[in-house]
Amino acid sequence: MEITNEQTAEWLKSNDSKEYFELLKFPTIGAAPEHLRDCSACATWLKKWLAATGADAEILLPGGGFHPPAVFAELKGGEGASTVLFYGHYDVQPPDPLPEWNTPPFEPTVIDGRVHCRGAQDDKGQFFAFLCGLRRFLASTAAERGTAPNLKIVLEGQEESGSSGLFKLLDERDFRRRLAADVMLVCDTSAAADLRPAIVAGLRGVNHFTVTLEAANRDLHSGEYGGIAPNAAQGMAELMASLHNDDGSIAVRGFLDGVEPPADGELAAAEAGMATEEMYATDIGTEPCGGVAGRSAVLRNCFEPTVELNGIHSGYGGPGSKTVIPCKALAKLSTRLVPGQNPRHAYETVVRHLEDHCPKGMNVAVSELTGEAPGFRLPLASPLFRLAAGVLSEIDARGAVFQWCGASIPVVSALREASGAAPLLVGWGQPEDRIHSPNESYSVRQFLLAREWAERILAAL
């Protein structure tokens, strides 16, 4: 599907684009308590939008602690119809660093057929394009004949920081009962190169947490105390370096317990549908040399776990110099997990490693654990995959490929278990969307593909 300038101009006049821009303007940073009001306003907007389609929509407030609201909606289908659960998230990553944005991060701006805004793709653009397709499907003759499936919709506001609010809701027996479905659709993943459709046959799980290292009782003068006091910044660097061996493999004892290698055919299918090492190099601007040396990028990204340092903070980083020995250092860590790994066990092995390797004269503490989501892989012979492949072939004559996504959607495994639904993850992301980075964007072409996918798969179901 190629989009002409005339088609883009026509789309910009539509209700879809007008409402999409309204949605993007909410600064729904779900991890930040100061944005709780923005998240609540967005949830209210989504409830109203869903109610306008005829859905029975409500706002759910998870109890205990800071949790943005979730939105739950139901649409009754034809008698004896199957039930489809759709999941998305309206929260977004913080826009930092602000100076690197070319446009205001919460003011949608169209440039060369792409909408630039935080959340333009992840996940507001993806889930809202799907909902626009749902609306078009409901207005179709197929729906009028009473053949539409039953629909349940869950939109949460904390996916980017671990989905703790939705996990709390899943602890409630009544809510779990209401989620019962046959199929779960998620539009929060990527297509293959040049937007060739991709069916995601697996996701890695995730843990993320904070490591704090403390030494002296205050920052110290680097001349008066240099050579005497332990340095927390240096200690944190040593501690983080200890997590990996020289060849890039994970040095944490027990972390790899239970790891399940790819099944027959999975690695070959992944290599056929994923980016090449040359494409990765072009995308990221450097050699794709992370992970274990000597193994393919597809194997490292799709089927092997990781321990990643997301950020490290200590001492002084402003202009000029400030000659101190830092007394405290903080690091943010995330681990990506594959099938066979137990998230709690994997976390405990990292904590034990950090405690065992804590530098002399310092104390280490680990806090703020979120995620605790296992990885999963789905059988390629699934009838649902065959159905989806047929639908995607109608959209794109090249047909669909399979992908095993290195990223995580922490709550998907839990929703799958709670609902009993077979997951189907099809999204339309591309590297140039720059999700989680400044200047995030989503093209009109991608929006229309996601909308068409929704119409067609709902009709097929």
If you had to describe this structure to a student in words, what would you say it looks like?
The protein starts with a helix and ends with a helix. Strands 1, 2, 3, 6, 7, 8, 15, 16 and 17 form a nine-stranded mixed beta sheet that branches. The chain has a four-stranded antiparallel beta sheet with strand order 11-13-9-14. The protein has 461 residues and is of the alpha+beta class. The model has no long low-confidence stretch (mean pLDDT 94). It is built from 15 helices and 18 strands. A hairpin with a 2-residue loop joins strand 4 and strand 5. 33% of the residues lie in helices and 22% in strands. It has helices at 5-12, 15-24, 36-52, 124-138, 141-144, 164-170, 173-178, 232-241, 266-273, 277-284, 297-303, 343-356, 383-395, 410-419, 444-460; strands at residues 56-60, 70-75, 83-89, 109-111, 114-116, 150-156, 183-186, 198-203, 205-214, 220-221, 306-314, 324-325, 328-337, 363-373, 376-377, 401-405, 422-426, 441-443. It has two domains: 5-188 and 409-460, Zn peptidases (Aminopeptidase, 3-Layer(aba) Sandwich), CATH 3.40.630; 205-259 and 305-373, Alpha-Beta Plaits.
Amount of helix: 25-40%
**How is the main sheet built?**
9 strands, mixed
What structural category characterises the helix and strand content?
Answer: alpha+beta
Q: What is the annotated CATH architecture of the largest domain?
A: 3-Layer(aba) Sandwich
Q: Note the beta-strand portion.
A: 15-25%
Shape: globular
Radius of gyration: 23 Å
Question: Taking all residues together, what is the mean pLDDT?
Answer: 94
